[in-house]
Amino acid sequence: xxxxxxxxxxxxxxxxxxxxxxxxxxxxxxxxxxxxxxxxxxxxxxxxxxxxxxxxxxxxxxxxxxxxxxxxxxxxxxxxxxxxxxxxxxxxxxxxxxxxxxxxxxxxxxxxxxxxxxxxxxxxxxxxxxxxxxxxxxxxxxxxxxxxxxxxxxxxxxxxxxxxxxxxxxxxxxxxxxxxxxxxxxxxxxx
Length: 191
Prior knowledge:
This protein is of the alpha+beta class. The chain contains 7 helices and 5 strands.
């Protein structure tokens, strides 16, 4: 009986150990899934599904980002505060979502589109040329005009400005776009 009880004790210890390992593995998988969801939420704007301000700033601070020519397009949705104040925030949110969808559809998939503020969006066109950037802006204008003509929604109006990294070799992209407002305010176009 002594052998039998030692054997059953070993079996019980072994089963317990396997159970604990399985439980720990399941817990680790759950934690990894939760972390992945939280990480995604940390970088995604919930209204538009676009990368949020945190992700935009992370890209701006990345030195590797400027190895090749990059165009930065800043887009500012006009009259959002007025829409929110007079028609309600749900209409303002719809305006933001419509504009975000149009930008997303116009900008090539290889490039970056993000929402960097309440009514501000940023586009990074990788390996950009002046003509490619201007074409994206023309396409955006055409799509907004089409939306405004055929849609029954609030009309979209926006301002835009842009810069090419090759035009400013001696300063950072963040400095070019955000610290030197004069740079892009001189090239703003209203639609």
